Amino acid sequence: MQAEKHCTSKTDSEQPKSKWQRSIELLQTSGVTALITVVLGGAIGQYISCDIQTRLKEREFRQSWMKTAGDQAIAAHSQYLTQEQDAVKRAYKLIGSYISALDDLIYVTGPGFDAPASEIAEQITLIQKKHNEIDSLWRSERDELKLLMGYYHPADPQVMDAWDELVDSLRAYSSCAGTWHQSHIEETDVKIDDACRLEKESVGKKLKSLTTRLEEGRRYAWEGWESPESLRNALESSVGLDRKKKHSSQSEKIETPSNSVMNATQNANKQRKP
Length: 274
Known about the structure:
- The protein is about 75% helix and about 0% strand.
- It contains 8 helices and no strands.
- The longest helix has about 80 residues, at about 30-105.
- The radius of gyration is 42 Å and the shape is rod-shaped.
- It has helices spanning about 1-15, 20-25, 30-105, 115-150, 160-185, 195-220, 230-240, 255-270.
């Protein structure tokens, strides 16, 4: 009986193990453990390396984009300021010529006009012709110049107001000078010190006011361009390059540097103080 029990116990201890038990024992061996460590470590390392490379490429692209957009923005802004200067110079040149022509209408009636008697009629005719040409040019271009003033100073409506006031004062001076000239056309020794004095003084005041507003406008034009950091912020805000949105959907349309240049300029204009 004891021998039989011993055989039975031995048989139970030597029963075959299940596949699950064998798998567990296999995984517990040092060789398999090392293999799993190598495989998982390599996969994780590859993932990390790929992620780092992706971030580096994104950073390199962002830096390259910022350089290109920055160069284009600076060039566009410089061109914008140059065109604004040209428009102002053109306006001042025409205004100066117009005032000079009106002054001449009055001057020919005063004692300072000392042309030879035989040439007085001819000189007066030339002065009248010059006035008519400039008056015609002023009438044809003043509205265009007004539009240019508004275009280059969108954040300062007082520039337009100052321009309108100057135009009104020039109209009053032109009317006064024309009337004076017609009333004293046959005279050359009239006292002209007080001729249209108030109207001309008004022109000077309105011209000074316009100059002040234009100077303020040019100061606003540089807002957002004082430093590389300001320009960078303007460009980033114009195309949504906030780092919090860098993982947005790739299907979203990417704005090109050329478009962002105009947006950056417009944003800078919108931020100017009224």
